[in-house]
Specification:
By secondary structure, this protein is of the alpha+beta class. The chain contains eleven helices and 14 strands. Strand 5 and strand 6 form a beta hairpin. Helix 5 runs antiparallel to helix 6, helix 6 packs parallel to helix 11 and helix 9 runs antiparallel to helix 11.
Length: 384
């Protein structure tokens, strides 16, 4: 009897111990699952889709500042390397947000690429994402900075350009007063006043023209234009000065190629290119103007045998007021706006302009425009 009780007690004890062990195992497993959820690198629901959808830089950092999710732009801007932030400026913002819990918004300037030859301007926003993660958003503001810099340069340049002829006219007027008893001096000073007045008038006219080009959609009132007529009109405006310097203006290429646009503006653009070629070419040299078309594209090229443009300056020749040779441009009356006007005319016609040059050999400027197709419709009332 006593032996039976001992057996029953042993069985009961075993069951109790076993049950306790099972409960302990479940508790350990539950705690382990909680621990795994804490160290998991998954981001909150929906953030993956948001990061994938945005077209600017966005990334999520875990507590160790490892990148657990990033948009394509993050890698384009070079913000991440080996899944960690590549720039201390942004890392410092993340540290501040973790410390204070408050979001920050700041503009930063970073080197683009490993050599730091160019900069990228970003508007960076950093905020907590839940209790563990940090969200970083960065919008590229480089173009806005460039436009603002261009605006400042334009204002500075135009002030300088206008100050020169205005100052000269002021000084010449004083000289005229002093030389009032000397007819020869009066005539000489009066001629110089006229030259400076013409320069001032040209600068003002080209600034107005450039502003109009930037504010007008020329294709809204466009018509079919024969490029042969455009070339002829531009050459007529330059024949006198070319003949005076013994220059040859040679025309070649396709005849009666048509584009859709504004004939006055296209003539202005070609005239500027031809005048530029004459200005920077030696006497008795040859300037070629050729029109060709292929695969729906019309190309008009103006080639000279002039002084050429250095490689470093070539990308800047279409900037407002930029001159390769400052002294020579002033002596010849150049304003530095001619090629900028050409660029805007061409862009307003849906085309582009390209420049090739070799110092001492000459330059070629090529306008590329969409060719008018056979079924292109002219504006109402325009004859085909």
């Amino acid at each position: 009897m006593e032996t039976g009780w001992l057996v029953l007690f042993s069985v009961a004890l075993g069951l109790t111990v076993g049950a306790g062990f099972v409960i302990l195992l479940h508790a350990v497993e539950r705690r382990g699952n909680n621990a795994m959820s804490i160290v998991s690198s998954s981001v909150p629901d929906g953030i993956d889709q948001v990061i994938d959808a945005i077209d600017f830089a966005g990334l999520v950092l875990d507590p160790s500042n490892n990148v657990v999710k990033a948009s394509t732009a993050v890698y384009t801007y070079g913000l991440v390397a080996n899944q960690i932030l590549a720039h201390d400026e942004i890392a410092e913002l993340v540290v501040e947000v973790r410390r204070t819990g408050e979001p920050v918004n700041q503009e930063v300037t970073l080197a683009r690429g490993p050599f730091g030859e160019a900069s990228i301007h970003l508007e960076v926003q950093v905020a907590r994402l839940g209790s563990r993660y940090v969200l970083v958003l960065a919008e590229d503001r480089t173009e806005a900075y460039r436009l603002e810099e261009t605006r400042r340069d334009f204002i500075a340049n135009i002030s300088h350009e206008l100050k020169t002829p205005i100052g000269a006219i002021s000084l010449l007027s004083e000289a005229l007063d002093v030389a009032s008893d000397d007819p020869a001096q009066v005539r000489r000073f009066a001629k110089q006043v006229g030259t400076e007045a013409n320069r001032l008038s040209q600068i003002t006219r080209e600034i107005i023209e450039l502003s109009r080009l930037q504010a007008t959609d020329v294709l809204a009132t466009a018509k079919r234009i024969d490029m042969s007529a455009v070339v002829s009109a531009a050459l007529d405006q330059n024949h006198v000065i070319a003949d005076a310097r013994g220059m040859t203006l040679a025309v070649g290429g396709s005849k009666h190629v048509e584009v859709i646009g504004d004939e006055t503006l296209l003539t202005l653009a070609v005239n500027n290119l031809v005048a530029n070629a004459i200005q920077y070419s030696p006497d008795r040299s040859r300037i070629g103007i050729g029109v060709h078309h292929t695969d729906g594209v019309v190309e008009l090229a103006v080639t000279d045998q002039g002084i050429g443009i250095p490689d470093d300056d070539l990308p800047r020749v279409f900037e407002r007021f930029f001159r390769v040779d400052q002294a020579r441009s002033r002596n010849t009356g150049g304003t530095g706006l001619g090629l900028s006007i050409v660029k805007h005319v061409v862009q307003n016609h849906g085309g582009d302009i390209r420049a090739w040059s070799q110092v001492g050999q000459g330059s070629t400027f090529t306008i590329r425009l969409p060719e008018a197709s056979s079924d292109s419709v002219a504006p109402q009332g325009e004859k085909r």
